[in-house]
């Protein structure tokens, strides 16, 4: 006769592993958003400091399956700086910061997948 014991322990370990993996993925997302914010602040053109101070991140989605952050700037004239005008060249600091955050998230996700 073959008996199987320890099933509850295995299930508990799997649940613990899942919770740990979810938390690591959430942290990877949060840290990548912070990396993007750091790059945005570094690349923001500075005259008075108001535009740089307007860079922020916020969590926009948080479910068991997904967590998303948004990089944004709440200064009213940010679009004129980022897109430019006929009198002023564009100085986009948002797109490079966003791309940096995505690259960091991809690297962190691959590190998690590889264990």
Shape: rod-shaped
**Alpha-beta content class:** alpha+beta
Helix content: 55-70%
How many DSSP-defined strands?
Answer: 2
Question: For the report, how would you describe the main beta sheet?
Answer: 2 strands, antiparallel
Counted by DSSP, the helix tally is 4
Overall mean pLDDT score? 92
Give structural notes.
Helices cover 59% and strands 13% of the residues. Strand 1 and strand 2 form a beta hairpin. It is rod-shaped, with a radius of gyration of 21 Å. With 115 residues, the protein is α+β, with helices and mostly antiparallel strands.
Using brief descriptors, characterize the structure shown:
115 residues, alpha+beta, two-stranded antiparallel ribbon, 13% strand
Give the helices and strands, then pairings:
Layout: H1 7-43, H2 50-53, E1 55-62, E2 67-73, H3 78-83, H4 94-114
Antiparallel strand pairs: 1-2
Helix pairs in contact: 1-4
Summarize the structure.
By secondary structure, the protein is of the alpha+beta class. It has four helices and two strands.
């Amino acid at each position: 006769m073959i008996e199987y014991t320890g099933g509850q322990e295995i299930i508990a370990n799997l649940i613990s592993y899942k919770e740990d993996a979810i938390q690591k993925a959430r942290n990877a997302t949060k840290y990548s958003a912070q990396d993007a914010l750091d790059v945005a602040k570094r690349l923001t053109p500075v005259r008075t400091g108001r535009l740089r101070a307007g860079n922020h991140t916020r969590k926009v989605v948080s479910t068991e399956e997904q967590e998303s952050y948004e990089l944004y700037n709440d200064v009213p004239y940010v679009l004129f700086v980022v897109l430019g005008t006929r009198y002023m060249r564009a100085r986009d600091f948002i797109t490079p910061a966003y791309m940096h955050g995505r690259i960091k998230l991809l690297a962190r996700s691959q590190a998690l997948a590889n264990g």
